[in-house]
Write a structure and sequence with these properties.
Shape: globular
Order of helices and strands: HHEEEHHHHHHHHHHHHHHHHHH
Strand order of the largest sheet: 1-2-3
Number of strands: 3
Structural class: mainly alpha
Radius of gyration: 22 Å
Number of helices: 20
CATH class: Mainly Alpha
Helix content: 55-70%
CATH architecture: Orthogonal Bundle
Bound molecules: N-hydroxyamidocarboxymethyldethia coenzyme *A
Number of domains: 1
Length: 434
Amino acid sequence: MILKEKIAAQLPEWQERVGKLVKENGDVVVGEVNVSQIYGGMRGAKVLVTDISYVDPQEGIRFRGYAIPELLELLPKAQGSDFPLSGGLYYLLLIGEIPTYAEAMSVEEEWKSRGEVPSYALDVIRAMPADTHPMTLFSQAILAMQNDSVFAKRYQVGMQKTEYWEAMLEDALNLTAKLPAIAAFIYRKKFGDGEFVAPRADLDWAGNFAHMVGIPTQAYQDLTRLYFFLHSDHESGNASAHATHLVASALSDVYYACSAGINALAGPLHGLANQMSLKWLLSVREEFGGLPSEEQFDKYCWDTLNAGQVIPGYGHAVLRQPDPRYTAQFKFGQQFMQDDELFQLVEMAFEVIPKVLGETGKVKNPWPNVDAVSGTLQYHYGIREFDFYTVLFGVSRILGVTANAVWARALGQPLERPKSLTTRMLEEIVSQKR
Ligand code: HAX
């Protein structure tokens, strides 16, 4: 398998590089942590490492050093499409090089050969109450397959530490292969005919989701390819990535770790924000019976803030500019749905909301994040049940977190265990320093 060969070839150099860094410079101080950070969700504390993606506050995400517009040019495209193959993206995340078309297709073929969803995972989804949230179903379906973990089985019989990453890669490919089919089934079970639709042999991983969910148009296939590309990774500190990393650091397998990551993504300050954002835009449209004037929109924003709510889709813990993932989706909207009233509202939001949030004087980043437009694009193509949107986010995010998990095991990253203090201890530290 090309992924295994490439990682094995790179590994000695990485191990030497990291080993040397830690051995010779283990006592070099990288940053300090202050009391605000300890009580403030560890914002900005530099305590994690990943080479798969990096979020620059001004520039946004780079995957393996490449910015989103560059990758939209460079990554191999699905046949007959201008949008990248997810197999090529996964290759890039895992290997760090832009793949050829053949290399991207080799990942797509791996996925095809591992894509069959076990019936018991579908049965778990079927067995749940009809009003169960799609993210709960998604997390449960992933966890249900834990019994198939190659890593867990090999660990039981005594795997060498140097082999952890290979077993992790097996699990990562087995799990990611099945995600579009599981997500499409969750949608059909909750909102459609309840049928499981098998993937088509001639379609790529992302294009197949469009087919299985029941919107097989070229435009929706392309949106799916774009969506699964954009949401895949956002360095290691965000809640879903960090939850996955923490759980996997205990040598829990990919299924345990990704189920945990999905549970974190389900929170309204994280992945659930895309459904909150669309809900909020729809409430604006309903209030004014269509597009409001900018003055009306401005007032609606203030009413939301004065009611103690956040404006979903705006703000970010790290970014200080419009999120390039927003910009890429916004361009898709401008190209394909300029006449859509809801998209016009997204355009108006970009003019009004940053100004309003700036006037509050406390929001550090008044610009849109990835969630400010993604739901609107889904809504346009007929996925209108916004409870489902975070599942799509999750399908994509698992590409990034599993690539990270493979490399974490390859580089022997240990059990994560930061130290906590008591408030009394902090008070004493502060009084000694003042
Ligand atoms: N609307 C209203 N107030 C906001 C705001 C927004 N969109 N964004 C930030 N603020 C407020 C914060 O609530 C905070 O207020 P308090 O001091 O009263 O608690 C203040 O501004 C400072 O916050 P910050 O430092 O700018 O932002 P944080 O790092 O604390 O939080 C969040 C980042 C993304 C959680 C925040 O901007 C927010 O709640 N945004 C709306 C929800 C959202 O869009 N989430 C999705 C983020 C992207 C993502 O992870 N997707 O999965």
